[in-house]
Design a protein that fits this description.
It is built from seven helices and 17 strands. With 251 residues, the chain is an alpha+beta fold. α1 packs across α2. The structure holds uracil (URA). Uracil binds next to α6.
Length: 251
């Protein structure tokens, strides 16, 4: 940590508690800075300060980078491509330490998180944590209510049954339909394979949400830093302390 930071933000970034819960801990006198109880909500933490909660030291949050990209079509989700294709690495030029969390196909656009926080990336990708991902799919043909039901119940794929998806139908026409599909698994080409299995090839696919991160109006090829609120929401995916001694989170 290289700069002073508000105490509640310090605790949230360190994975101890949400900012709101941190304020409650502070107000309850459970937090100390350099041995003195810190009861003022606006208290700042200096880089050399020692923060404790209930007497236990809290490791200062690391200076990590968290970026949201709108991955364009025709770009490979990797930092370097031996075949010389365009990569997401080229779009985050100058931040060589970050890497993509999961992957989007060459022909899929949309929300992609890049970070140098290996621990968080691991947790977000772990099937046990099942982060929800929403995709807007433009598909060939008219989607029937029965096909919607099959998607919601779970489609049988060659590598096993896909868990039921949340489905929101936005448009149904004879030649093409538009659907929002939310899944929590992350199998290879899963959304494309789900629609292929019910006889509707995907014409265009965009990920509009990754967990708490929404693509919004971020233009294709652009990258932005996550907001404090988004970071806090992602931190909730860290494991509770009983299973992981490396994290500080309090319940
Ligand atoms: N499902 C797909 O089929 N492709 C992606 O890029 C992501 C999910």
């Amino acid at each position: 940590m290289q700069q002073s930071i508000r105490l509640n933000k310090f605790l949230a970034r360190a994975g101890v508690a949400s900012r709101r819960h941190a304020d409650e801990l502070i107000a309850a006198g459970r937090v100390s800075i350099d041995g003195k109880a810190a009861r003022e909500l606006g208290t700042m933490v200096e880089p050399a300060s020692e923060v404790r909660v209930d007497g236990a030291p809290v490791a200062p949050p690391e200076e990590l980078t968290y970026l949201l990209m709108n991955k364009p079509l025709g770009v490979v989700t990797t930092m370097h491509d031996p075949q010389g294709r365009r990569t997401v690495g080229q779009l985050v030029n100058g931040r060589p330490r970050v890497f993509p969390v999961g992957r989007l196909d060459y022909a899929t656009a949309g929300a992609l998180l890049l970070t140098d926080d290996g621990e968080l990336a691991h947790r977000l990708l772990h099937p046990r944590f099942g982060v929800d991902k929403t995709y807007r799919a433009e598909i060939g043909g008219r989607l029937s209510p029965d096909e919607v039901r099959r998607l919601m119940e779970g489609i049988s794929l060659e590598d096993g049954r896909a868990a039921g998806a949340k489905v929101r139908v936005l448009a149904v026409r004879r030649e093409r339909s538009v659907v929002d599909v939310t899944i929590h698994e992350g199998r290879n080409r899963q959304v494309r394979r789900m629609f292929e299995a019910i006889g509707h090839p995907i014409l265009a696919l965009t990920r509009t949400r990754f967990g708490p991160l929404r693509l919004g109006s971020l233009p294709a090829g652009h990258v932005r830093a996550l907001t404090e609120k988004e970071l806090e929401a992602l931190q909730r995916h860290r494991r509770p302390p009983a299973q992981s001694p490396r994290t500080n989170r309090l319940r």
